[in-house]
Task: structure prediction
Amino acid sequence: MLDMLKKQSDHPLASLKSTQQLLGNLPVDNAVKLLQEISHWVEVATDPANKFRLDHQLAVLRLLDETAYPYLNKTINDYFTVQPLNAFHGNSMWAALNEYFTRVGHAYLSVLRAYRNDEKGSAAIKSALPLVTARGMVAVAGSLKCAAVRYALVDHELWSNLAEYYALAEVKQYLNEPLTLYAESDGSTTVQSVFAATLMWQACGVGSLNPLQMHIAERLITHLGGYLTIDGQYVASSLLAFDLRHSIPPMRLNGDSTLHPGLRYIGVSDAPQYLDELIKMLEKGKVPEKIKINAAYSAELVLDVARHLARYVSATPPLRRNPRRKISVNLCVANGFSELEELADMRRNSMFEVGETWETEDISANGFLCILPAGRAGNVKVGELIGLQPEKVERWGAGIVRRLSRD
Result:
């Protein structure tokens, strides 16, 4: 027994003092590496094998998370730049962000589960439950964002974890308790605002935005969180429904939606009016400081995203105007403006060699849904101009990539 206690006392996270000493040796001049190291210690802090009391686990976890916060923000700002990133550095930053959000999301949820099981030290953390829940939800939102910027399918566990966070807050009745996420954050928020903003962002057509636009949309909707509502029953302003019992993304409500007690309804309340006011300000070339967005982003760039969001939070969302028909056709593709330029040069057109062939899955009057082989998808970007020539058709046409989803 004495040997076990001695082993515990030698652990780098066994006390806040030793944890601070560990943090003092982190590479503060390299945000990506620092995040990677803290991600490791976050996982260690809540490892049951260490047998830390729950209140100590949370104290260490908060210290780690708060130390990482400014470096997390720096990495996010460095990743979401106006100018294209070097592929190697971009991948390194993405991996560090994804790992950090994943481990922090799991760690805070582990603390809440231990509290629910009344483990030793549970009573001491009761007052911190709203903060634990909100930070955990922010981490889940970060994981969703990491998947979105790569147009990847979302792990169903993320929806399950988000539902679990919300359900405990609802049972313990602290959904609307004001809190400050971090000392460096401006203003207060609530668990409900974080939850509603996460779902609204995911439902606002992120697959039709490029990564930078996704980031701006997330910043705008985070600021919009206070204008969103959550109800246990359908109300006039309800726009989305989220099923707490199943690991599925939020769904847009329509006349055919099935209603049941496990659903929570996200309403837009005064959000459309707020967005209208924001758009008017952006049209004048001003980005409000209260949004807390990178100063390098122009008002025009933010305006495009705000208009996109306004269409999705309106009572009449964008609808498909033309039916899609299941037709399989091979398309010759000139991917990107430079290849289109070459194609348009009539003196060289006969010598032009198409670099890619895409297969359609369905077709409408003004669009194609195409399936690309895994190795070909890396160079395709939302908003990119492409040349298209269906098989057995002599003429070429031009199109724009509107949406992406990677399986």
User: Anything to note?
Assistant: The chain has a mean pLDDT of 88. The longest helix spans residues 87-116. Strands lie at 229-231, 238-243, 251-252, 263-267, 330-335, 356-364, 367-371, 385-390, 397-400. The longest strand covers residues 356-364.
